Amino acid sequence: MDDRGRKGVAMSEGDGTREFYARLVTLADTLVTGFDVVDLADELVSGCLEFLPVTSAGIMLDDQRGNLRVLASSSEETRLLELFELQNNEGPCLEAFSTGTMIGEVDLETAVLRWPSFTNEAMFQGIRGAYAFPMQLRGRTIGVLNLFCGSREGLDAEQLRIAQVMSTMATLGILNHWTVRRQELLAEQLQTALNSRIVIEQAKGVIAERASVDMSTAFQLLRSSARESRRALSDVAADVAHGRLAPTTLLAETGPAHGLGHAPGQSDAGTPT
Length: 273
Known about the structure:
The protein is an alpha+beta fold. Helices cover 58% and strands 13% of the residues.
């Protein structure tokens, strides 16, 4: 057995356990200090190779349309195998994703009928066993952690728990990333709304002053123009505020047609009273 295998088996010993917990602390720290989700996935894949008797590992992620995409791989060969699995629509990863349960095959030779294309390709690469751990969030599977073994010994109960912990760390990382992105998007949307409100208030002031109407009428003019031109209210307001659209033009084009009346002090003919 190689160094990876010995380290994976020795996880119950003090030194290995301390190293594993130290790695978890490092990974957990990245969840609260800001991180690149791809970099985190790569760290988790490397951790699997360090603490488990596996020859390769990878992570696939749901693209939010129900399709899996390769997020991280321990080697180019592993990435190609995962792509091969997706292209042929068969293999432990896809099965774990669709069922939401862990899939484990200690001896791939017994799975030839189950996954014929994947099994042949994996065994050609020297892989003898495969595991797929669904990454689940509130009952929804958002991705899968793949582990590939070079022997038929497979993972024992403790090693399976370690793999599950790594899968959970990946899930938490993705969740944190999505939460941050949603908050950033919400902040951007709120700031855009506030900026639009400022521009609209500026435009109302310009219209009220130059067309001699009150602020309520100025807003009605803006809104009527936006609706007639099928443009965003904030875009019309920006044109007014920056001098690209004259307030008197708005009054002439939309005022009478919408019953907005005339500027104070003017008759129907538009002459001072």
